[in-house]
Design brief:
The structure holds two protein chains of two kinds. Chain A is mostly helical. Helix content of chain A is 64%, strand content 3%. Chain A has a two-stranded antiparallel sheet. By secondary structure, chain B is an alpha/beta fold. Chain B has two domains: 234 residues, P-loop containing nucleotide triphosphate hydrolases (Rossmann fold, 3-Layer(aba) Sandwich); 225 residues, 3-Layer(aba) Sandwich (Rossmann fold), CATH 3.40.50.300. Chain B contains 16 helices and 18 strands. Chain B is globular. The chains are: A mainly alpha, B alpha/beta. Chains A and B meet through α1, α9 and α10 of A and β5, α2, α3, α4 and α5 of B.
Chain lengths: 278, 491
């Protein structure tokens, strides 16, 4: 079974020069043995309970425990921080609306029209900002190194989604890079044809339309190529890259449950737990 | 390696696509014996690809079109012979399905239900057969065009087909890629004995490998069917007129002389060019483009020819160093083409892209030709005069109202050159102007460029095509391969 996952990883070394080193490291990590379908479940498990309460403690504990898991993911701390950067920008934005418009409570520091900054609303604002990070972090940790092919294998074999659909989408995603090249070349061509100085919006729409034409044409050709290789035949398909569940998947899920349990328990014990609908 | 070569029998076969009045193919009758190697020829639009797709059993059901007569592989419908028939298409990017080499070759085996434990051996066998010696997890996106076509061939071979169908497998490849594919196919048929059917304009590449030539008539039926020598001898002229590169039928165009020196219209100094503005593909270029003559840029794949062309045309900024135009072309912001406005570029340097469709902007051929003149603010009379003259020159007058996207490959290419000529730029830069062209399209484009040179236009062409170089003459720039990492992936 030369195509099995572990051996593919081992083969990664010679190809790494032409691969994408930023998304697929050459180091193996504990989480590589966790099935991608389990990772999807894990992402849900690590986010849904956090919707139950809005408080600072449960969010902080969850973030803290998840950061401790970084060594299991094979990601570098710096990489995680860089990917978090976008979230760190969005989080305060979500917080600001809470700060201004949440129901006032306790001491009111500032008032202007509908906007009140109060003790309660500022606490809520901080809690919401932390929540955004706590909800985004698992996605980064779980999926930063996930390979699309591996994900498709798991979705078809473990989650039993229709293989025609999954493989069709997988093959289609490969086209995205081609479309980027098309877009770049078309932009240069607009300049060359004397219409590059003005009309950015109009140019955007005409280029989008041409890209659509390319997409339909490429899609048709790809479908033909796939059919020529027996895709969509009535024969039951086999899988050269088996995707299976193992004990590690159970451990991962248990670990996720523990992180959530500890976070909620900490909030309840410290008395900060606030049920969203109360 | 195969379960025996396949026999193909067509009996009065034809196919009409749904929504079309006339059949794409009609009344075709032949028997291809197991192990025969057939070159399938015909004018563009004669239905060669339809016939090949029909042999592959991929034309679809009654919703897609209407069939007549019969076409059978080993005595039954090709639709029910999945895996018995392998098909490789023209576009190297279209044949690749998955993102890693090993996975891609395994794809067909998986679909055919080959037991998982047998697949790795088949994958290796197929990759060995086509001589593609890369790691199994090499990203398919990092392969060169020739490698991608060999991968597509390996993907078909892994299914162990008795019939191999290749639809213009080398049309989009450079000379190295063509040699790679030719060698691979020869190796494969020698090893498997599979029946082989190839559509290809470049007959010289394949003629000595083939045992038989079948020519499809444009109005149905077969025009010729026999040994390569016999068919080329008796139908050579007809085939040449139809766009086929027939051996021993040279092109009737003048050969322009090479050029020593002359006035310079573009010059570079310590120029480094880069596609992504980070990684240089060429550095330290000291080049000159002589005025009013041809300059041909050659070099291996990945040497940065296209990037250099785009930089000379003022579309990409130099990474380092400078491009300077002659004083008579000075723009608002000086002599550096990259600093000119889009409108200023029009009358100074025009660029013809490798894929004509990338530069089409409008709904009709006429509008397409008017884009440049309009951007220059010419009056109606002047625009009409220029456009009418161009339509006439290109033989596109009858198609003035047609959508550019619906033209044939040769017409698209000529139109893309004409849209640039409409603004009468001093310099025309072309990226692979004869790429994928049949004999007719080739002659159309080369004669157009010769006319422009005669009119005093400077022509800069990136090309792999030795005949283009010979017929354009002028000055030649050879880019050496680059030693940086990017070249390795294409080796």
């Amino acid at each position: 079974m030369s195509l099995r996952f572990e051996e593919r990883k081992a083969l990664q070394e010679p190809a790494s020069s032409s691969g994408d080193p930023s998304s697929r490291g050459t180091r193996t990590a504990w989480i590589d043995g966790v099935n991608p379908v389990t990772r999807i479940l894990l992402a849900l498990l690590l986010s849904i309970p956090l919707f139950a309460s809005i408080d600072v403690i449960s969010g902080l504990v969850a973030i803290g425990l998840q950061l401790l898991c970084i060594p299991l993911t094979g990601l570098r701390f710096g990489t995680v921080l860089r990917r978090l950067a976008l979230l760190l920008i969005i989080a305060p934005v979500a917080g600001v609306s809470m700060l201004l418009y949440a129901a006032p409570g306790g001491q009111v520091f500032f008032s202007f029209g509908f906007a009140h900054i109060s003790e309660a609303s500022s606490q809520l604002a901080i809690a919401v900002s932390i929540r955004v990070v706590a909800l985004g972090l698992p996605t980064i940790l779980l999926f930063a190194r996930t390979d699309p092919t591996e994900l498709a294998d798991a979705l078809a074999q473990v989650a039993h989604l229709p293989s025609r659909f999954v493989l069709g989408v997988l093959a289609g995603t490969r086209m995205l890079g081609l479309f980027l090249d098309d877009w770049r070349t078309m932009s240069l061509a607009r300049r060359a044809r004397g219409v590059g100085d003005r009309g950015v919006l109009r140019r955007f729409f005409t280029m989008s339309f041409v890209l659509l034409v390319f997409a339909v044409r490429r899609g048709t050709k790809l479908a033909l190529a796939m059919e020529a290789r027996g895709f969509g035949a009535d024969i039951p398909r086999t899988w050269s890259r088996p995707s299976r569940l193992s004990g590690r998947d159970a451990i991962a899920l248990a670990g996720g449950a523990a992180i959530m349990a500890l976070s909620i328990a900490a909030a309840v014990l410290l008395g900060t737990f606030r049920f969203v609908w109360s | 390696m195969t379960a025996g070569a396949a026999r193909v029998v067509a009996d009065g076969w034809g196919w009409r696509y749904a929504g079309r009045r006339l059949p794409a193919v009609s009344d075709v009758t032949f028997t291809i014996e197991p192990g025969e190697r057939v070159l399938l020829l015909g004018a563009s639009g004669a239905g060669k690809s339809t016939l090949l797709t029909g042999m592959a059993g991929l034309l679809g059901d009654a919703d897609e079109g209407e069939r007549s007569g019969s076409l059978q592989v080993d005595g039954s419908d090709p639709e029910r012979q999945r895996g018995r028939i392998g098909l490789v298409l023209q576009d190297p990017d279209a044949g690749v399905v998955l993102s890693r080499v090993g996975d891609d070759v395994a794809f067909g085996c998986e679909n055919l239900g080959v037991p998982a434990q047998d697949i790795p051996a088949r994958v290796r066998e197929a990759l060995d057969a086509v001589g593609l010696d890369v790691p199994l997890d090499r990203p398919t996106a990092a392969l060169s065009g020739g490698q991608k076509q060999r991968l597509a061939l390996a993907g078909a071979l892994a299914m162990r087909p008795g019939l191999l169908l290749l639809d213009e497998p080398t049309a989009n490849l450079d000379p190295d890629g063509v040699r790679e594919i030719r060698a691979s196919v020869e190796q494969v048929v020698a090893a498997t004995g599979a029946t082989l059917v190839i559509i290809e304009h470049r007959t010289a590449v394949w003629a000595d490998l083939m045992t038989r030539v079948i020519v499809v008539g444009a109005d149905g039926g077969l025009l010729a069917d026999g040994s390569p020598d016999e068919v080329f001898r008796t139908h050579g002229d007809t085939l040449a007129d139809a766009g086929v590169w027939v051996p021993r039928h040279p092109v009737d165009l003048p050969v322009l002389p090479p050029l020593g020196s002359g006035d310079t219209v573009l010059a570079t100094h310590a120029l480094a060019v880069s596609r992504d503005r980070r990684q240089p593909v060429q550095t330290g270029l000291e080049l000159t483009v002589p005025d009013g003559a041809a300059t041909v840029i050659t070099g291996p794949n990945g040497a940065g020819k296209s990037t250099l062309a785009l930089t000379l045309a003022g579309l990409l900024d130099p990474l380092h160093g400078a491009v300077a135009a002659a004083e008579r072309l000075r723009g608002h912001r000086g002599l550096d083409p990259a600093r000119w406005t889009s409108r200023e570029l029009l009358t100074r340097i025009g660029m013809v892209f490798q894929d004509p469709e990338h530069q089409f902007l409008t709904q009709t051929v006429r509008d397409e030709l008017e884009v440049g003149p309009r951007a220059l603010g010419w009056d109606r009379d002047r625009i009409d005069a220029v456009v009418d003259a161009l339509l006439e020159r290109l033989g596109l007058a009858a198609l003035a109202a047609a959508n550019p996207f619906t033209l044939s490959g040769g017409q698209k290419r000529r139109l893309s050159v004409a849209t640039v000529l409409a603004a009468a730029p001093a310099v025309v830069v072309l990226d692979e102007p004869t790429f994928g062209q049949d004999r007719r399209g080739w002659i159309g484009i080369v004669s157009l460029l010769q006319e422009e040179i005669a009119r005093g236009t400077t022509v800069v062409a990136v090309t792999h095509d030795e005949d283009v170089i010979r017929h354009l003459g002028g000055h030649r720039i050879r880019l050496a391969p680059v030693a940086v990492g990017s070249a390795e992936a294409r080796a």
